[in-house]
Design brief:
The chain has helices at about 20-30, 65-75, 100-105; strands spanning about 5, 15, 35, 50, 60-65, 80-85, 95-100. By secondary structure, it is α+β, with helices and mostly antiparallel strands.
């Protein structure tokens, strides 16, 4: 699932996908790693999912997890990945948001 022309706060085009390889490739090209917000999981299950970009404020708040755990939770919760390739000015963007698939269909 990929949707174009969704406006982000920067008014640049964003896309939505559920493709694991596309998400992983996008994140790793920008130095991103799969993570969970500390203290939001139950027992051994990851909590709220995020992409962590080391050096950009996630220290102490985010805990890195393996991609397989990230995508297991991603599928279990029926999530989608909203992301931006470039900023309005043409620079590589790290803008992303993990949303429900129901929201992505709207």
């Amino acid at each position: 699932m990929v949707k174009d022309n969704i406006k982000t706060p920067a008014e640049a085009k964003a896309k939505i996908t559920t493709n694991h390889e596309e998400i992983k490739k996008w994140a790793e090209e920008r130095g991103g790693r799969p993570a969970t917000i500390r203290g939001t999981g139950k027992e051994k299950e990851p909590g709220l999912l995020r992409i962590d970009f080391p050096g950009y404020g996630g220290e102490g708040k985010l805990q890195e997890i393996p991609w397989d755990e990230f995508f297991e939770k991603f599928e279990k919760e029926e999530l989608a990945f909203l992301y931006q390739e470039e900023t309005k000015g043409g620079m590589q963007s790290r803008f992303n948001k993990i949303i429900s698939r129901d929201t992505a269909k709207k």
